[in-house]
Amino acid sequence: MNKRIYYGLYGLIVILLVLPFVVPNNFYLDLAVRMAINAIIVIGLNLLIGFAGQISLGHAGFLGIGAYASAVLPMHFGWHPVTAMLTGALASALLAALVAKPIFKLKGHYLAMATLGLGIIINIALRNEAQWTGGPDGMPVLPMALFGFEIGSDRQWYWVVAALLVLTVWGSLNLIDSPFGRALRALHGSEVASQVVGVNVARYKVSIFVLSAFSASIMGSISAHYIGFISPNFADFFHSIELVTMVVIGGMASVYGSIVGAVLLTALPQALATFEGWETVAFGAILMLCMIFMPRGLVPTLAARFSKGDDK
Amino acid sequence: MLAEFLQFLFSGITVGATYALAALGFTLIYNASHVINFAQGEFIMLGGMLAVLFAQMGLPLPAVLLLAVLVPAVVGVLVEKLAIEPVKGAETVTLIIITIGASLVIRGLIQVWLGKNTFSLPAFSGDEPIHVLGATLLPQSLWVLGITALVVVALWYFFNRTLQGKAMLATSVNRLAAELVGINTSWVLFMSFAMSAALGALGGILITPITMTSYDVGIMLGLKGFVAAVVGGLGNGLGAVVGGLLVGILEAMGAGYISSAYKDAIPFVLILLILFFMPRGLFGGKSTDRV
């Protein structure tokens, strides 16, 4: 890996700085905020899928924990939104660690099954505990306040989320380039080989899963405050699948791919809204076609095309 | 007390039989290709929905059954030919996404074609309940259990007593070795998708008179079938049947004795417990890793 990988980060910063001044109206600004939120979640999930080679089919469950912590704790118990957000994130991280510890001692795709189960249980609990969560109808979320300053408008949220996105990209690039990241990549290459050279396979996998759950939970909280309303659909199986799809379409093990995947799939439902009734078919068909013709995802496929023979 | 217990048991094994058929479907495809087919649930839905459609057209019951099993089998083969075969050897994550894409396409098409309503199918032989020790048993439950048992026996015969069945088993043990002794492994893949779609569809048809059906029932039924397959030890046929019945019974008992609101959570709690304490499932063998 070389310094060139950071050029993308500079490009991203420029785009993020210019974007709010060129979007025609608030509709597109709102879309940009949601794209950035998804991008941050997807980068975290991609560290797990792309580098640790493990798939989570219940990541929306962690989003849900974060979102509902930020909704329920300030509303019913008068907590400060920041404390609520951090509590949610710690709870998600703890839950992830508890689930992952025994799972990662096993080989194979057991994490997919465990997270699938976990996500569905969280969703069912959110639907049923109506006295706290409002049940299937959802509940409103109080606004986020920081040092007495309330973050309210789309534009304020845009800057918050944009800053978080830059931080996440920078942090992930560094993480991938660190000994930790190299261990993760070795792991994806061959678990047995990395174990032989002394990588504690299980511990690394647990750490990366916990990290991605933590980040998902924080972004769940931020989404909840941004939208101002939350319902259990936010934490359902379909949303988990959408997130995995963003990773895979953008490109596994590619930080910039995650951003591209998040941007495309967040925009997709808007674009498909014109095909009334056919959205599900179109979404499914696009998934299949992408995976059949570009199994490595958009960014790695295109990168390989433009720099033939120039490996990394 | 006993009556109540029996009542939950009856409803549990009836639904469990459907999970068992779905789990067998997962097992067949997993053994032939190591793909976890997330479209399995949609075949259950297709079976039920198509049976309703054909029955409304006035076809006799045997024709309804035959068509509602055959059409999903053809769909299963199409999924395999168009989406799975072109990406042979891709990463597991890629294959999972492809089958999820296929499930969305199937569900979406049915939603556009037949709408979002809930449909029911008349029971095969009346609705007069049978009384057993104070509990009631629907005649349809007997159909479900009887046909499932027949299918399991037929599958056992197929895999243990016929050349084709043994060829499929051989492929699941070692694909390369199977190819070397002249087994057509593409045919095996083709057959496993056709059979697993047909099994799922059959379960969907049988259960529809009891639980009704709509375009979106496939997600939950499929996921529970998947849980059943893992509970039994993914890839193990007997395990899939036992797993299916176990998931169905525990779900019914949990709904009856603990909380009906959390009924759908029970299979997923079960899978977490199994993964923590018996990670290879109830019937899964030990696996070793070769460098």
From TrEMBL, chain B:
InterPro entries: ABC_transp_permease, BCAA_transport_permease
Entry keyword annotation includes Membrane: yes
CDD domains noted in UniProt: TM_PBP1_LivH_like (cd06582)
Subcellular locations according to the entry: Cell membrane
Keyword set includes Membrane: yes
Transmembrane portions of the chain: 6-28, 61-80, 92-114, 141-159, 180-206, 226-253, 265-283
Database matches in Pfam families: BPD_transp_2
Membrane association type: Multi-pass membrane protein
Principal localisation: membrane
UniProtKB keywords: Amino-acid transport, Cell membrane, Membrane, Transmembrane, Transmembrane helix, Transport
Signal peptide positions on this chain: none
Family (UniProt): Belongs to the binding-protein-dependent transport system permease family. LivHM subfamily.
Protein name according to UniProt: Branched-chain amino acid ABC transporter permease
Protein source organism: Azonexus hydrophilus
